[in-house]
């Protein structure tokens, strides 16, 4: 039976053999194109060409639920096969899910009826959650149930954002998008806690990895989910000392966890330091949110972009660079250009979070340029790997 399954898998076009292939490629492509497009729109271009809602609504939704959503789907739909032994989504079913994602991106710029727009943009996350549930439930893999829960939370928040878009309710959009951003933060807590110490151990050939403290992992996850609830309920949109205290506790907890993972050898391996630096941005985001809630930071955008650019997109770029190598049967040594990509990306994060406070136009311009080039480097170096069969001849 195994030989039959392998034979069937090898007949599938390589691009559709596992979820990471189409969704890493398309997600990185959207990231590389959407941010420069947003900058042009911000500077007064495309006045006569508007997506559904407006450019701000599109920017908020597409960078979170489009770009980040694609990478989350690609990673989870691939990893769940390893975690459970249940075959991952592939072939025509994966093609169908991919086409839904593509159609949703196009629907913003095509004058489709409102119900069609809502269905196309609202369908993706529930389908990913359903596939995850179908994989983890039969084997009763309780440790992965929270991932299904967070995907359902993202589905609900996405629906709220879309409702805000079609009803021109900017406040509702902002509220739900910020909830969605921190829901992704909850996924980062789960996945980061699992893979970063493991990757560090394997990458540095250490005999033993850092053992997780379950109480800390649970506290960070549930604390972050509490933040999601605070945003979803609208309580976190204004400065609150109690919420600031929660952010501060989570910042300290994440810093402790990052310090436990640290090994000075990571600076020799770009696939490792990129993960650790992204996690440091995560800590910075929590600290900045605490400072804003205490009234000691004027601009909350600094904190939000430390999370969305530095931490979230930084972790994405580091993860897809490693996962693509591993799941295409290659040695875990990235192309040299990718190391420059990681460096440029972090320059983008520094520029978007800090330099814009000194010179807005220069900081934003540098951030957009470095962001787009870093994802373009990924596409150039890794795109052929995603489209071609594994080098070791295995399915997947």
From TrEMBL:
InterPro entries: NnrS. Keywords: Membrane, Transmembrane, Transmembrane helix. It holds the Pfam family NnrS. The chain crosses the membrane at residues 20-43, 63-80, 92-110, 116-133, 145-165, 177-199, 219-236, 242-259, 271-292, 304-325, 337-356, 362-381. This is NnrS family protein. It comes from Thiopseudomonas acetoxidans. The lineage of its organism: Bacteria, Pseudomonadati, Pseudomonadota, Gammaproteobacteria, Pseudomonadales.
């Amino acid at each position: 039976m195994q030989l039959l399954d392998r034979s069937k898998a090898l007949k599938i076009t390589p691009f559709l053999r596992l979820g990471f292939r189409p969704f890493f490629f398309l997600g990185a492509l959207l990231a590389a194109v959407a941010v420069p497009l947003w900058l042009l729109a911000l500077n007064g271009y495309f006045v006569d060409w508007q997506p559904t809602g407006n450019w701000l609504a599109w920017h908020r939704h597409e960078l979170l639920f489009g770009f980040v959503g694609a990478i989350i789907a690609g990673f989870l739909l691939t990893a769940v096969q390893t975690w459970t032994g249940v075959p991952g989504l592939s072939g025509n079913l994966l093609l169908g899910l991919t086409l839904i994602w593509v159609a949703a991106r196009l629907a913003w710029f095509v004058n489709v009826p409102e119900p069609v727009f809502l269905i196309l943009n609202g369908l993706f996350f529930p389908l990913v959650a359903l596939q995850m549930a179908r994989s983890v439930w039969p084997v009763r893999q309780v440790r992965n149930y929270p991932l299904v829960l967070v995907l359902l939370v993202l589905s609900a928040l996405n629906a709220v954002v879309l409702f805000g878009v079609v009803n021109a309710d900017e406040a509702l959009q902002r509220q739900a998008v910020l909830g969605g951003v921190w829901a992704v933060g909850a996924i980062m807590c789960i996945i980061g806690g699992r893979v970063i110490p493991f990757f560090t151990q394997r990458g540095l050939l250490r005999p033993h990895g850092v053992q997780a403290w379950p109480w800390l992992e649970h506290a960070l996850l549930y604390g972050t989910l509490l933040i999601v609830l605070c945003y979803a309920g609208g309580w976190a949109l204004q400065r609150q000392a109690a919420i600031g205290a929660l952010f501060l506790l989570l910042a300290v907890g994440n810093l402790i966890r990052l310090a436990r993972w640290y090994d000075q050898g990571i600076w020799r391996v770009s696939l490792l330091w990129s993960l650790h630096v992204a996690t440091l941005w995560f800590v910075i985001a929590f600290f900045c949110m605490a400072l804003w809630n205490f009234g000691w930071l004027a601009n909350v955008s600094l904190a939000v972009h430390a999370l969305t650019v530095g931490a979230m997109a930084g972790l994405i770029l580091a993860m897809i660079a490693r996962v693509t190598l591993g799941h295409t049967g290659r040695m875990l040594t990235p192309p040299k250009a990718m190391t420059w990509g990681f460096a440029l990306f972090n320059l983008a994060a520094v520029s978007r979070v800090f330099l814009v406070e000194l010179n807005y136009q220069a900081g934003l311009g540098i951030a957009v340029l470095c962001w787009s080039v870093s994802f373009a480097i990924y596409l150039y170096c890794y795109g052929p790997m995603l489209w071609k069969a594994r080098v070791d001849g295995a399915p997947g």
